[in-house]
Amino acid sequence: MSSRLPSSNAPRLSTAPSSIKPRQLLSANLADLENLLRMTSVQAEAMRGLGAFHGGLLGCTRKPRAEEKWFERGLSRNGEAMM
After folding, report:
1. Which residues are CB-contacts of 82 (< 8 A; sequence separation ≥ 6)?
2. Which one-letter DSSP state was computed for residue 3?
3. Where is the composition biased (Polar residues) (predicted)?
4. Cα separation, 11 vs 24, whole angstroms
5. Please, what's the largest Cα pairwise distance for the chain?
6. CB 76 within 8 A of CB 70
7. pTM for the complete prediction?
8. Rounded to whole angstroms, how far apart are CA atoms 74 and 68?
9. Is 81 helix (H, G, I), strand (E, B) or coil?
10. Cα pseudo-dihedral 18, 23, 29, 34, rounded to 10
11. pLDDT digits (tens, 9 = 90+) for 29-76
């Protein structure tokens, strides 16, 4: 599996010494921005998946919790007192 992070031993062009031209600096900054946007997109997709998982868990607990409330009140499903 390849890493999405740039190698730490090579300096980014956006932080290199001022011997580069402004156009190169702009290009490097745009490349950094593109990488950040790509990673943000990956993180947003992961958060969306976690939200769906959480919603599924919440949906699974709805029926047992509703039955538990009826049982605590001493009522059957049709509202009559249980003995």
Report:
1. 71, 74, 75, 76
2. -
3. 1-18
4. 14
5. 87
6. yes
7. 0.49
8. 10
9. strand
10. -160
11. 999 999 999 999 999 999 999 999 999 888 887 777 777 776 666 665
